[in-house]
Amino acid sequence: MANPRSRVPLAIGVVVASAGGYYLYAAGGEPKVAQKKAEADAARFGGSNQKSAQKQGEELAQELGSKIDHTIDDARAKLNETDQKVGKYTKDLSKQVSSEVSRVEAETAKELKDTVNTFDKTVERKTVEAKKGISRWLGFGGK
After folding, report:
1. Residue 92 and which of 12, 21, 111, 135 are 20 to 30 A apart at CA?
2. For 101, left (φ over 0), alpha (ψ -120 to 50), or beta?
């Protein structure tokens, strides 16, 4: 039996030849243009690709961090705006309540004063009538 040979070199050769044919075809049959395009693609997909991916990742992380910071700042601004609106509303409500309490106090004081005056007049009138009645009963008053 013969020693089996590795087919890897053959496969690599086929891939290289196919790639060369592709670049030559894409360049319109011009070898120098095909070589430059192949070198450009190799540089793009080679070792610099890893650095490029890392750089893109860092840029993406910075962009994402910036968007998160912006969102947090917007949320804080809206919270402050809402807090100011609530504070203003509370002050306005406090003024309204205070005004209403003052109005009710004034009305209550007036009603109490009117009631006391009415009671006082009634007591005075009844007192005068009672004096007249007692005076008549004792004979001091007129007919």
Report:
1. 111
2. alpha
Residue with tokens 């490029």: 52
Provide the residue count of the chain.
143
* pLDDT score for 10: 80
Q: In this structure, are residues 34 and 27 in contact, taking their beta carbons and an 8 Å threshold?
A: yes
CB-based contacts of 35: which residues, under 8 Å, 6+ apart?
A: 23
Q: List the structure tokens of 102.
A: 């003052």
Structure tokens at 6: 């590795």
Return averaged pLDDT per consecutive 10 residues of the chain, 143 residues in all. 70 82 81 82 65 78 88 94 92 90 93 93 91 81 54
| Cα torsion 106, 107, 110, 112: sign | negative
The answer to whether 38 touches 19, Cβ cutoff 8 Å, is yes
Contact call for residues 31 and 24 (beta carbons, < 8 A)? yes
